[in-house]
TrEMBL record:
This is MFS transporter. The chain crosses the membrane at residues 25-45, 65-82, 89-108, 114-134, 155-174, 186-207, 228-248, 268-287, 294-312, 318-340, 352-370, 382-400. It comes from the Bacteria. InterPro entries: MFS, MFS_dom, MFS_trans_sf.
Length: 410
């Protein structure tokens, strides 16, 4: 006589589906924690290694800028691979390139070869493009649309862990090889990517064919012209672009105002913790108040961080503005990502997500190249004043999009 209490092995049953979703989300959090630890290593050491290897003072931040550019340029080919091979195998390739990038960068340091080091940071950009798409994989992994914001927020908790792992790796390993300072940190970057390999191999995400909707997908240009996409992409671009720009410029501004390098580093540490710490509850806030309200709140907080920065040049103003900027980025970027999920059908998701990330991280790359020069030209107060109209413009776009949606429902 069959045992009626035996659990079903059918993956389509609700209990099996829920268990698979929880398993995939847990793996994505772990992958985010390991993969997200690479950028802090590259960003914190790239300029120092550039000073060590380059005879041209204007090229010292080039390795970091090339990393950001590599990330932006990799979003589209990474999305193509995800569409053809599935997310899991694209993520495996990303982690493999993460291993290679760390080894190449470390070899560049060992050989005192600036070009080789820059090649290593550029290769890390593809891995970073895969890591950035984990949040979309989390949204795809849950069946219920109302749970997508919580899933995205949960993945960002992995970013909080990464924000702790990355700087600690730098502290522990930067002098591990005395003959080649900083090379140990980049070998450690490779090791973290190697640890991520078995994690992404365990993923069991929906296959591309199962995600495809019936019918023909709309052209990308048509989707990009919709009010929903314009508002979501604009919010994501401004949230991430301004955060990256100000985060890059802040340490230079603090040192320029007479504060120590250690005080500047502490300010950045608090900023990074503020970026990811709210992820424990951002999804719940979005579920209660809605995607647009939380996104708008994040943008307002980013603008407020600029106003606080202009209030003075003491540590409380610098640190307070960086903390406010981090929380504003969390609300704005997670909210914008959740807004983007409304813009496409399952058949369209990969190309729309890729376009969004190309716009976001292309902006970050441009900001990385120009932050130092603009700080020198207009000063810290000028940068914070100049960002205010951008925030206002995006808020206006969001109001316009909201009215368009309301009028279409009448």
């Amino acid at each position: 006589m069959p045992n009626a209490a035996a659990p079903s092995s059918d993956p389509s049953t609700p209990s099996s589906t829920s268990a698979l979703q929880a398993r995939n989300l847990g793996l994505l959090v772990a992958a985010q924690a390991l993969g997200g630890a690479s950028p802090p290593i590259i960003i914190s050491l790239g300029g120092l290694v550039g000073q060590q290897l380059s005879s041209n003072p204007t090229a010292t931040t080039l390795p970091v800028s090339i990393y950001q550019l590599g990330l932006a340029l990799s979003t589209l080919p990474a999305a193509w691979l995800m569409q053809r091979l599935g997310r899991r195998w694209a993520y495996v390739l990303g982690a493999v390139l993460g291993v290679v990038s760390g080894i190449v960068a470390a070899q560049g340091i060992a050989q005192s070869d600036f070009f080789t080091f820059c090649l290593g940071t550029a290769l890390a950009g593809f891995y970073a493009a895969c890591v950035q798409s984990y949040r979309f994989a989390a949204a795809d992994a849950v069946a219920e649309a109302h749970l997508q914001a919580k899933a995205i927020s949960r993945i960002m908790v992995g970013g909080l862990i990464a924000a702790i792992i990355g700087p600690q790796v730098v502290i522990w390993t930067r002098d591990a090889l005395p003959a080649t300072p900083f090379a140990g940190s980049f070998y450690s970057q490779a090791a973290l990517a190697a640890l991520a390999l078995p994690v992404v191999l365990l993923l069991r995400l929906p296959a591309p064919k199962k995600l495809a909707a019936t019918g023909t997908a709309r052209p990308l240009a048509q989707i990009a012209a919709t009010p929903q996409f314009i508002a979501a992409a604009a919010a994501g671009v401004v949230s991430y672009g301004l955060m990256a720009f100000l985060m890059t410029a802040a340490p230079m501004a603090m040192v320029g105002c007479g504060h120590s390098v250690g005080e500047a580093a502490l300010g950045i540490q608090w900023h990074v913790l503020a970026m990811f710490g709210p992820s424990f509850f951002t999804g719940r806030l979005i579920g209660r108040f809605g995607k647009r309200k939380i996104t708008a709140l994040g943008l307002v907080m980013i603008a407020a961080s600029g106003l606080l920065a202009m209030a003075g040049e003491d540590l409380p103003q610098f640190w307070g503005s960086l903390i406010l900027l981090g929380v504003g980025w969390n609300f704005g970027f997670i909210g914008a990502t959740a807004m983007l999920t409304e813009c496409y059908t399952p058949a369209e998701r990969t190309k729309v997500q890729a376009l969004n990330d190309f716009l976001v991280f292309g902006t970050v790359a441009v900001a990385s190249f120009g932050s130092g020069q603009l700080l020198h030209s207009v000063g810290w107060n000028g940068i914070n004043l100049g960002m205010q109209p951008l925030v206002v413009l995006v808020l206006v776009v969001m109001v316009w999009q909201g009215r368009k949606m309301n009028s279409s429902l009448r």
